[in-house]
Design goal:
about 130 residues; mainly alpha; about 55% helix; about 0% strand; elongated
């Protein structure tokens, strides 16, 4: 008997549940392996780092299109043509850009709120001292 069947036999009831019989020898699925890059296609064999001028063009294209409406194809149309820039690379870079921008906004707001609080508590007395 399997473990599930033993539990039902000992309790005398399956409490209305239908249990699936499983054998002890049931094979487990092996994890999927990533495909290796072809030797003829070097696009994925090396990590691409965005040079400053291409990142500037990327950001400029985002400002032209608008961040909310930006898509890899729209950004690609608004960027100057470059042999190493692909839709997949733009897609990945856009994802990282949005993530970093969200973190930067959160950090900015935290810093801004702390500065504002500090200014409100000590800044008023400093302004009065400067005025006299």
């Amino acid at each position: 008997l399997t473990t599930d069947e033993e539990n039902i036999s000992e309790n005398g009831s399956d409490s209305g549940r239908t249990l699936r019989k499983r054998s002890v020898e049931e094979p487990t699925k092996a994890p999927k392996k990533r495909k290796k890059a072809n030797n003829t296609d070097n696009r994925w064999s090396k990590r691409f780092s965005w040079p400053e001028h291409l990142h500037r063009d990327f950001v400029s294209a985002i400002f032209d299109v608008g961040l909310k409406h930006s898509s890899p194809s729209a950004i690609l149309e608004n960027m100057p043509k470059h042999e190493q820039i692909t839709s997949e690379r733009i897609k990945s870079h856009l994802q990282k850009y949005r993530l970093h921008r969200a973190k930067s906004k959160k950090e900015f707001m935290t810093s801004y709120n702390a500065s504002l609080k500090q200014f409100q508590t000590s800044g008023i007395s400093n302004i009065k001292a400067l005025g006299s």
